[in-house]
Write a structure and sequence with these properties.
Blueprint lengths: L2 E2 L7 E6 L10 E3 L2 E5 L8 E11 L13 E5 L4 E3 L6 E6 L13 E4 L4
Antiparallel strand pairs: 1-5, 2-5, 3-4, 4-5, 5-9, 6-7, 6-8, 8-9
């Protein structure tokens, strides 16, 4: 399960009422930027969305991530990856993850990395 690893004072959030329902810590692509909702919310209901933090444990494609690698969001597969083509840049790997790992190590996540 995706975890927010940064201390509370370092987590950057924005309140927003998204047009679709959102699920706690399930990343959502909004206007070509990835955000992480902090709570479950119905469509058009106000929710807090993380746009910058250290995160870990997100679902990962079957690729290896090395320290410093660019990390992308594959919105079709709903997974983090190192493949740039047709995906959205969301940060950099701060901890390596093997191709056989199902989840990420620590990522310096930023919705506005691109």
């Amino acid at each position: 399960m995706l975890q927010i690893r940064s201390p509370a004072a370092q987590i950057k959030t924005i309140d927003y009422a998204h047009s679709a329902a959102t699920t706690h810590k399930t990343p959502v692509l909004i206007n070509a930027h990835l955000f992480i909702p902090l709570d479950d919310a119905a469509a058009n209901a106000q929710n807090a969305f993380v746009y910058a933090a250290e995160i870990s444990g997100g679902d990962k494609a079957a690729v290896a991530l090395a320290f410093g690698d660019k990390v992308y969001w594959d919105d079709t597969a709903k997974k983090f990856t190192n493949v740039a083509t047709s995906n959205t840049l969301v940060g950099y790997a701060l901890e390596a993850a093997a191709s056989g790992d199902a989840t990420t190590g620590i990522i310096a996540f930023n919705s506005f990395a691109a």
